[in-house]
Every structure is written in C-alpha cells, then in structure tokens.
Amino acid sequence: MKRMPKIKDVMSAFPFSIYATDTVTQARTMMKEHKVGHLPVKMEDGSLSVISLRELERTQLPGHSHTDFDELTVGDLCPLNAYHVDLQTSLIEVLDHMSETHTDCALVTRNDKLAGVFTFSDACHAYSEHLKEIFFPPSGHDVA
Which residue has the higher pLDDT, 60 or 84? Predict the structure, then answer.
C-alpha cells in the first residue's frame, strides 16, 4: 500500500534565505545567482515571510509607490502573513490550500525553524514526475 506523501517529500530542503533588513537589490542578485523564484525572509522579530522575484520585478514598473530603490528593503515588500506548514503536513492539504487561496509558496518548518520551501513550480514538477510514473513506467529493459 502506498503512503500518502508529505510536504517534506517534495519540498526544496535547506533553501537560501535573506534577512528583512537586506536590500531589494541583494534579494534580486541572490535569486538570480541561485536560480530561484522565492526567498524565505527572516523577519526582525524572528518570524518568517517570503519574497518572490515577481514581487521584486513589480517595484521596477512605472507608477510603483516606491521610488528610492537603493533604500528599499526586503521587509518593505514581503507579506506579513506567509503560508507556513509543518514538515509532516500532508501534500494534499498543502496543495488544496495553495489552489484554494491562490498561494504560490509554502514555507516548511520543523519546530518553528525553516526547513524548506514548496512553490508552485515544485508542485508542477512533482505532478509531472507522478504522471511520468503512471504513463511511462520503467520497463526494466533499459540498456546502459
């Protein structure tokens, strides 16, 4: 009998993170260096949030309320109530919540400490792998 997957089975473990006091420029540079679309943010009070590349790119659009981008910090932009789940949370529960609330990222914690991140892209990748297992199972006749 198959086991119901947990978020820990599909998350990106040990994600890169940034501090709320770091600049938007530092966040953008870190995301490009590590080829990630989301960065967990360590807030000054010890809580966690998240910033996405999409949110950073919005600051560059004409008409954005912030104009002094050199002074803008990650904490100025990231949401105060990011979606958090425990490492042992069912993948179905996380996927249902993300789809119902249009959330594109879940911060995964263990004992209230950052353990991983699960994004919309991770969900697409996991679903693709699942479909490949169903429709293109290994035949056992693979030749090296």
Answer: 84
Stated pTM of the model: 0.83
Q: Using one digit for the tens of pLDDT, what is the confidence trace for 12-40?
A: 998 899 999 999 989 999 999 999 999 99
Q: Is residue 118 within 8 Å of residue 89, measured between CB atoms?
A: no
Q: Count the Cβ atoms, other than its own, within 10 Å of residue 31.
A: 19
Contact status, residue 108 vs residue 85, Cβ threshold 8 Å: yes
CA distances to 3, 25, 78, 137 from 38, rounded to whole Å, are 29, 14, 11, 32
The conformational region for residue 103 under phi > 0 = left, psi -120 to 50 = alpha, else beta, is beta
CA 59 to CA 65: how far, in whole Å? 8
For the domain made up of 7-135, give the CATH fold.
CBS-domain (3.10.580)
Q: What gap in Å lies between CA 78 and CA 94, rounded to an integer?
A: 21
Cα–Cα dist 54/92, whole Å: 26
Count of other CB atoms within 10 angstroms of residue 75 = 19
d(CA 88, CA 109): 9
